[in-house]
Amino acid sequence: MHQTTGAEHREHKTAQLLRADARVKLFVLFSALLLVVSARGVVLPVFVLALSLGLMVWLRVSLKSVALRFIEPALIVLVIIIFKSLTGTEEFLRLYGISFYREGLSEGLHMALRIAAAVAAVAAVTFSSPVADLLSALQWMRVPSTLIEVALFAYRYIAGFHDEARVIYSSQRGRLGYVGVQRSLGSVGMMCGSLMMRALEQAESTALAMKQRGYDGQMPRHHFEPFRYSEVAAGLALCLLMLALWWLR
Hints:
Elements lengths: L5 H14 L2 H16 L5 H16 L4 H22 L6 E5 L2 E4 H26 L3 H10 L4 H30 L6 H32 L16 H18 L3
Antiparallel strand pairs: 1-2
Helix pairs in contact: 2-5, 2-9, 3-5, 3-9, 4-5, 6-7, 7-8
């Protein structure tokens, strides 16, 4: 009799998670985002953040991929914390004549925690689901087809434009295009212009190719399998748990 090893059990659970219904995942995600954004305390954001990071560790997502998801939100969070720290009544630090207040810092950190939890939740769902399944689930939820098409094309071509930008940047750097502030700004402007022209050319080529293949403006509908009771029950249980944590400060 064959006995499953720990590695086989882990792979089986991972495969089950990846195959889980994308509609259930999106319902849980939207519920989590709504509750996290409106949370008054720190219990729920900490729970969602820990659960999402733990899920990404379970899926063996690379640290680089996770870091890339958090870079831009981290910059926004830093700005929020700085500006929030400028408001309040209890001063705790003064630098170059600028006062920073404890109440504002506390509010900024709370807001930063909620943003981090929301970003982690979105990242966990996108890492655990194929993009095609998520877009099909959005279509099932009656999200306007225009938004789905824009998201689909953005996902399809963003990697190509990133590679194009990297080639242009390397070429400019080899020609000393980033020596000095003025030349750097000029090089960035030229790169943006080249990418814009590339995007317009790609849009025309894609529209022509789709028209030649009979595209009539209507996206084909994906036929989902019936909901699995176990997945629906697990999703509802998680939502109820988050709702209970939402009440805690």
